[in-house]
Amino acid sequence: MSANATRIRELISAERLQARLTELAAEIESDYRGGDPPLCIGVLKGSVFFLVDLLKRIDIPLHVDFLQTSSYGSGTEPGEVRILKDVDLPLRGRHVLLLEDIVDTGYTLNTVLALFRFRGASSVKLCALLDKRGARQVEVPIDYCGFEVENVFVLGYGLDVDERYRNLPYIGVLEGATDE
Q: CB within 8 A of 56, min separation 6: which ones?
């Protein structure tokens, strides 16, 4: 998506994001306390800001790895799910917590969660910062959800438009965008 922005409307403030991360961290810590350390896998690139801020708040042992996928062909319609960067750590017998910036259609995450189960993970849970339920085409269970958002194109806090705006400290909506 190429865009000329006239304005970014703030949808979720930096303060609300940080407060919700503290709540999510407490839920995750409570669920995993006393067991084997979870393997927290971030989906690149969008989850990086979310993953770092969330995991710094969790006070139990854990492991971290990354996965990068691509699910779009030449346009914006979902296509074949490809693994561009696979995890480095083994999944068999481990409790996996997948950290994703946004769940929209569900195609990619459905595939990734099934792959992790196929590889023998003891458990697989999903923690998503944003749930865009209005775009869902395949149901995906979200075990820990930050916010439900309307079916609009969001950016900031890891989410991008042509690799721009990831570093915004809040979630916003690009207004006045035109396709080039």
A: none
Q: Which residue has the tokens 């083994």?
A: 90
Give the active site residue among 53, 104, 143, 162.
104
pLDDT digits (tens, 9 = 90+) for 33-47: 999 999 999 999 999
45: preceding bond cis by omega (within 30 degrees): yes
Active site residue 104: yes
Mean predicted lDDT score pLDDT of the chain: 91
pLDDT digits (tens, 9 = 90+) for 137-147: 999 999 999 99
What span, in angstroms and rounded, lies between the C-alpha atoms of 34 and 96?
Answer: 15
Distance CA 161, CA 163 (A): 5
Instruction: Report the 10 Å Cβ neighbour count for 10.
Output: 13
Q: What is the pLDDT of residues 67-86, one digit of tens each?
A: 999 875 545 555 678 999 99
Give SS3 for 148: strand
Range of the domain at 119: 14-152
Listed in sequence order, the DSSP H helices in 11-160 are 14-32, 48-55, 107-118
Q: What is the total count of domains within the chain?
A: 1
Please report whether residue 117 resides in a domain. Answer: yes
| Model confidence pTM above 0.85 | yes
Instruction: Tell me, yes or no, whether 164 lies in a domain.
Output: no
